[in-house]
# Entry
Amino acid sequence: MPISTGEVEKIADLAKLKFDAQELERFVDQFQEILEYIAKLEAVPTEEVEPTYQALEQEDLATPTREDEVKPCFPVGTALANAPDSSEDHFRVPPVIES
Amino acid sequence: MRSELCQLSIRELRERIEGGDSSVTEITQSFLDRIQQCDNKIKAFLTLEQESVLAQAAKLDRELAEGKSGNGLLMGIPIAIKDNIVTQGVRTTCASRILEDYVPPYDATVMGKLTQNGAVLIGKTNCDEFAMGSSTENSAFFPTCNPWDLERVPGGSSGGSAAAVAAWEVPGALGSDTGGSIRQPAAFCGIVGLKPTYGRVSRYGLVAFASSLDQIGPLGKSVYDVAILLQVIAGADPKDSTSVARPVENYLSELDQGKDVKGLKIGVPKEWFGSALDRQIEQSIQAALEKLEGLGCPVVEVSIPQTEYAISTYYIIAPAEASSNLARYDGVKYGHRSAGQEDLESMFKFTRSEGFGEEVKRRIMIGTYVLSSGYYDAYFLKAGKVRTLLRNDYLEAFKKVDFLVGPTTPSLPFMMEEKKTDPLEMYLTDIYTVTANLAGIPGLSMPCGFSQEGLPIGLQIQAPHFQEAKLLRLAHALEDALAVERPELAV
# Structure
């Protein structure tokens, strides 16, 4: 099933990525090749097989619980230290609401 | 003397420190000198902590002199850490432009455990961006070279850690393994690397790539050194709910007791010896299997029928998890932000497109595609089901044998640029390693010989869940029996 440029653009939009025309062209070809390869799985009979989403054994699958206690956390300055932009103890981003 | 200290194993360095034969400062300086001498050719390090490591070494020397030092397993040993494991106050980039200036406010659990045991952090090592790759060529900064042949790749993604250990720049290092990223570079660099059982080592502070597959593990020059490192980093962690509460075995006493390996059964999966396997590697593995028989281990053929589908399964599940994990890089809380964007949507898109490299974008795209409505069942759900079948293959095989043994890689270390432009070709190099991650079992790569060209050959041992002690015992015995002779390094 060949994948179209439009479809790749749609996926890029979902993934919040942007490609220029040249990148997109190269991408469509590689994408196609990889999808054809992974489609090999169609040949495996999997009726009545349950999927595995994690690798732990059943006996190790406990949901840990703990007391709901307040513990020390990063001060605001530390939490903001890596932020590209901040103001008055907040992360700052471009406008979200249209004016 | 100094020029030789850097060639010693962790075990030997510990003895020198305990016996008062060398100071921590002398040892640390020896590794720094070696890095100074050869890292312009190897390029294993992204960040070198020269000043702080010497200060730390001096502090430990004072404590040792005053008898105040603890009895940590790594007292005074310099260690390097892959740059996708966070280190408080030390830049952690994941070899990505998007985290180029990121300085973590906290330590990964494994880093804390190293420090508590007296290790000193010498630097952060290069890798494929976000651990996505098999050659370290996907680093956003520069590729790392193979210490046995500078024109070849060191493997990846933990290529910096593996090359640094092989080139005597550091006696031991940590890496991470999502589909072979510790074992494959260990094989390509002629050292020992272990991916522990999923859940054996805390992932807290490991920058997430594919959360159901990622595992931190040790790289060292010998099986014993790898056992020391695993002893330090293993164990449950309240900060990682997928770390497992089973008691940590005493790996070192397992090796110190010198128990023999007679009677342990070895399974050789027939699917691992197909036409894709390099002839020299095949011969070297066969010779090692004969050594194992000589140690009293019966060798039988077994089958892991889903091997053929392992790469397809992995390259659906890993990118799917990655596309979700990497959504956090949005230019808001940390990392790169595209300048001058006037609305949020554009800021997200330009930030991510400028910050991520080509392979990372490709995997985010594949992951987004296989999770998108209309394709989820055909790809992601299907891969989850084949993963169950693969896991069952292993459980069946381990009813008959104690270990699986075979090659770590289908080929010898390849040339720089050889596979860089063909992503699928690069993915296929992971054929023998991804299965352990999908099944969650431990896998170890160790040198079993060198090719005619003087390139290392790696042998892989896989074991059932949480059987690291027995796995290390077998590897230790095989290491002794093989006594691999090493050619000269290229540096």
About this structure: DSSP finds three helices and two strands in chain A. Chain A touches chain B through 50 residues (CB under 8 Å).
